[in-house]
Amino acid sequence: MRLLEKRILEDGCVINNEVLNVDRIFSQQVDTGLLVEIGKEFESRFGNRNIDRILTVEAAGIPIAMTTASYLHVPFVFARKQAIPIMEGSSLQISAYSCSQAVNYHMYLLKHLLPRGERVLILDDILSNGEAILGLTNMCRQAGAIVAGIGVAIEKTFRPGRAKIEKEGYDVVSLTKIERFEHGVPIFTR
After folding, report:
1. Read out DSSP for 40-56?
2. Bridge partners of 95?
């Protein structure tokens, strides 16, 4: 997706030739025009899969899930990275490791927000090590929901995320792929 690549080159920040900071695109500042195009693109790729619900993890996945959900006409839910006191009822809790933040964390979701038998599209902003997405697939499995697709806006192909996810039997749709960073600049796969 050329528009996404353009925005990454303009406003993405590469740290230590390893971490891509997208705070000015997805997380703290949201480019709504770009997100509309991302939602349209994911709708074109997953619209024929009878999706019932979208699942993501806070924070940068939320705008991606929201715009895609509006095109697919389904609700979206997000796993929290902290349990909060108002989370009443049975909840799912999964551990994951964030390579960009170099920390283990937990993801929490009320079980009734991921109904048994529903077809779920998992979306996230960046695929690197695949831990967050595998955590979300595990949540679906625990809830009895069906993973109908996995999409990411940006994939770092030099990291093991895709291989881990495919090893579990899932396909991944990436809107843009970065094969490496050179001198703080992303080099995209063509």
Report:
1. HHHHHHHTTS---EEEE
2. 106
